[in-house]
Amino acid sequence: MEIKGTALLDKKTKNLIKRLKPGHIAVIDHQDIDEVAARGLIEKKVKAVVNCAPSISGKYPNIGPLLLVQNGIILVDEAPKKLFEVLNEGDCLTVKEGALYRNGEFLGQGTILTEEQIKVKMEATKENLGDIMLAFIENTLNYAQKETGLILGQYPPPPVKTDFRGRQALIVVRGHNYQEDLKTIRLYINEVKPVLIGVDGGADALREAGYCPDIIIGDMDSVSDETLKCGAEIIVHAYPNGEAPGLARLRDLGLTAQIYPAPGTSEDIAMLLAYEKGAELIVAVGTHSNLFDFLEKGRKGMGSTFLVRLLVGSKLVDAKGVNKLYKSRLKAKYLVQLIIAALIPVLIILAVSPVTRNLFKVLVIQFKLLFGI
User: Fold this and answer.
1) pLDDT, tens only, 100-120
2) How far is CA 108 from CA 50, 94, 102, in A?
3) Residues 228 and 356 in one domain
4) What's the distance, CA 218 to chain centroid?
5) How far apart are CA 9 and CA 75, in angstroms?
6) Closest CA to 271 of 126, 187, 171
7) Residue 180 neighbours by CB under 8 Å, 6+ apart
8) How many CB atoms lie within 10 A of CB 47?
């Protein structure tokens, strides 16, 4: 099989996805392609993905490669890393049986992964799960001991203009099935009108769903410039020592922001912010909370998340996967009953109205005259 397309390159898949168009060939350096990255590539309708790293390293059964192949995308695995040196953005790239060419020039060889090969690799990774889980638990406990300051008041959130008192808060992260979950809770958002907090790319997710975030929080590495300029309050997640690399980007855009120095993840401190500012309830969409979520993020433990969820647990509702909980179907008999119920008051009004009675009498007279009755 031979395919041709315009090559776009980036070692950060989430950055590349923003630039991709249908028919492009994505050149990435992404070990263990995760589900969120795969779905982003699928949505962009790329022809092929050329990965300069192992798409499945064997650490855990990541589902990203399988999703790509099942959606008809050619996946070239472990292509040479020199592609990032010799290939230019916009070059015409040809993929033929895993071999890579530019205008007839051979650039290197990769391996095309089939669905069957991917499933075999995924099955083999299950043998490692026991050791991985033990190491993950140990790291989680170690990190939790070091990060207890998160829940002991050592890292207070910065002041914000948004008033949380008497309101609920919705925290959106670009995690698994975040789009479907947002659609499912649309009625909740429209009726309750919670404080909308977008964690990095989660702010873009809110805007894609038709909402404007009240607060954007994170290290500013995956949220678009357009969303940053939407008027929301911006909080940059900084290292505990106060260093905030994401602040430079905001200054270049002419935007101001608060700094939140704290350990842990940006979604952790988003929950802390809502909790400390008095939110009545915290609803989370797309957040990372289990072993595979954190392995996909490249983290070896979840100490901060464990601690924060212990603190805010009484107020936290995790809406992750809520779209799969229940899907109602409107049955025909219910529709008929609804129509009949709606017609009853209309018929009653028509029956008691003098104008309607006189109109009915005129119609009866015309009917009698027409048929000579």
Assistant:
1) 999 899 999 999 999 999 999
2) 11, 11, 10
3) no
4) 15
5) 15
6) 171
7) 323
8) 18
Distance of CA 84 to CAs 22, 27, 49, 79, 248, Å?
Answer: 21, 8, 14, 11, 26
Query: Is residue 341 located within the same domain as residue 256?
Result: no
72 CB neighbour count, 10 Å cutoff: 9
Whether the CB-CB separation of 72 and 1 falls below 8 Å is answered with: no
Could you report how far apart the first and last alpha carbons of the chain are, in Å?
Answer: 83
Whether residue 23 is found in the same domain as residue 158:
no
In this predicted structure, the answer to whether residue 259 has a pLDDT above a threshold of 90 is yes
* Comparison of pLDDT for 194 and 35, the residue scoring more: 194
Q: How many CA atoms lie within 13 A of 242 on its CB side?
A: 0
| pLDDT of 131 strictly over 60 | yes
Residue 312 domain flag: yes
Average pLDDT over residues 256-278: 93
Place of tokens 């031979």: 2
Q: Structurally, how many domains does the chain consist of? A: 3
Quickly state the pLDDT bin for 339 (edges 50, 70, 90).
confident
Whole-model pTM over 0.90? no
Helix axes 303-312, 129-146, angle to 10 degrees: 60
User: Is residue 61 domain-resident?
Assistant: yes
- Give the separation between CA 290 and CA 303, rounded to whole angstroms: 11
Distance of CA 163 to the CA centre of its chain: 26
The CATH number of residue 219's host domain is 3.40.50
CATH number at residue 84: 3.20.19.10
pLDDT at 356 over 70: no
Cβ burial 249-281 (10 Å sphere, 16+ → b, else e): bbeeeeeebbebbbbbbbbbbbbbbbbbbebee
pLDDT in tens, 35-69: 888 989 999 999 999 999 999 988 878 889 999 99
CA dist 172 and 168 (Å) reads: 13
The residue range of the domain holding 351 is: 332-371
Running DSSP on this structure, what letter comes out for residue 57?
Answer: -
Question: In terms of pLDDT, which residue wins out, 344 or 222?
Answer: 222
pLDDT at residue 328 in the model? 54
Residues 311 and 349 placed together within one structural domain of the fold? no
